[in-house]
Amino acid sequence: FDTGEGRCGDGDVHTYSMLCNNLAIAMGGDGPEARQFAIGLHEKGMASSPFAEHLSHWRWCLWENGQHADMIDVAERLWNFSRRHGFSRHQPQHYVDDVSYALFELDRHDEIPIWLERLEEWWQSLDAEDQAEERHSYVHSLLYVLRQMAWSHPADTLARVRPYEQEARASDDPGWLQRLGYIFQCSGHFAEAQVLYDRALAVGDTS
What is the pLDDT of residues 130-153, one digit of tens each? Predict the structure, then answer.
């Protein structure tokens, strides 16, 4: 690790990759420079013996460092790698919202629906028991992605949110209510949007 030199025959290559991943995770929470070092470890691990956990934490490091374009690229790799090779702990609902935000900030609005469909693909792949367990995280991510879509695709977004509208209203979750309000606002339903904004403010913090 100090020199970056050596031969793959000096040890088990997958063990080396796992150690890269574990050290990267251990160091990744210590600030931007540590996360950049962790990214280098993930690159070494993926080059030696690739597995999805590298990409998962690599993506998180880039997100935390505000490297949005690079984060999107690694998220794309994570999604495709997980589909091709399997990843039992793959939880796209926990990063699709980050990707949608980054795409919005980079004015890449037409790519957001792609990630909405990927979220839906993941959801439909779950059995009934897993859907019951993951329902809240799915709807939370769905509303977040739709909120990012609403400015550029208002009609499509409004149609997509309709099946979840009553669930969001009944939740008393200020974030859900604010996102639903923004979707209504972008589609021209200003009075309804104001009702939702007022209710979000009444029930709690929307940050």
Answer: 999 999 999 999 999 999 999 999
Given this model, what pLDDT does residue 86 score?
A: 79
Residues 6+ apart with CB under 8 A from 75: 59, 95, 98, 99
Which distant-in-sequence residues (6+ apart) come within 8 Å of 192 by Cβ? Answer: 181, 184
As a whole number of angstroms, the distance between CA 105 and CA 120 comes to 23
Closest by CA to 77, choosing from 58, 91, 93, 49, is 58
pLDDT digits 0-9 by tens, 44-69: 999 999 999 999 999 999 999 999 99
First to last CA, the chain: 40
pTM for the predicted model, two decimal places: 0.89
Q: Which residue has the tokens 């796992």?
A: 18
